[in-house]
Amino acid sequence: MVKKVIQWQPLPQRVVRRVLPLIVLLVVVACHDQEEKVEVRRADAQRAATTAMSHVADRASSFGYQTQTEGLGENGPVVHVIDVIPSYRLDAFGGQLMGDDRGEFGGELMFRDQQGSTRLLMKRNVHGIFQMPFGVVVFTGLAHMRSKVGGTYLVTASPGSIPVVAPFRALQGAPEEVVRTLSGELVFKVLNGRFERDGTGEKLEAKDCYLMKKSGEIKKLSCASIVIVN
């Protein structure tokens, strides 16, 4: 019996150019489908998305604090004292951590002790305060015009009873919609400087999604992998 030898001929370049992008797309889709889903409660997601930028009151409140803001008056720089009802709170270190974000007008992280005294811990726009297995983490950042900065800070106890704040993990920009997942991790969004169009054709600033693990490690995450559950 005579065996036939089949000689494989290379595909024409024009065929390769057409087929290769389809193969790459199929691989990307397959990897995306295999990506682990991250579940978030609907109520938590809605709360994170609708948290007011600032709560400034005209009167003192037992739930807030006083802080100073700087501005320009007719005769030069002026300092205003305002009463703030913070957007974020966390009971910790025998007192309460409080944070607020007023955009380009500033923000801060404060601490109220058991005696009711408040202390300024840092001047940063706060976007969330969370207790994690590795400690208390604070999300900060500012997205204003071309300025997009962000970072996280770790708050720890100190012998003097006033918590200490130290830089923790850098971010690619100001975080938004920081929310805890059902597994105890944190997901959040960051403006990436690009633009995209929504379903109505409106041009919006695009955002990237990230996951902070229980270890404190941060990794990029497909926004489509975040699943909202009741």
Could you name the key traits of this structure?
single chain; 230 residues; mainly beta; four-stranded antiparallel beta sheet; 2 helices; globular
Topology:
Elements: H1 13-34, E1 38-41, H2 42-50, E2 56-57, E3 65-73, E4 76-84, E5 88-92, E6 95-101, E7 107-112, E8 118-122, E9 126-132, E10 135-144, E11 147-156, E12 164-170, E13 175-180, E14 186-197, E15 203-212, E16 218-221, E17 226-229
Describe this structure as you would to a colleague.
- There is one protein chain.
- This protein is 13% helix and 51% strand.
- It has 230 residues and is mainly β.
- The strands form five sheets. A four-stranded antiparallel beta sheet has the order 5-6-7-8, with no helix packed on it. Strands 9-10-11-12 form a four-stranded antiparallel beta sheet, with no helix packed on it. A four-stranded antiparallel beta sheet has the order 13-14-15-16.
- The protein is globular.
- The chain starts with 12 loop residues before the first helix and ends with a strand.
- The chain has one domain.
- Strand 9 and strand 10 form a beta hairpin.
In short:
13% of the residues lie in helices and 51% in strands. The chain has 230 residues and is mainly beta.
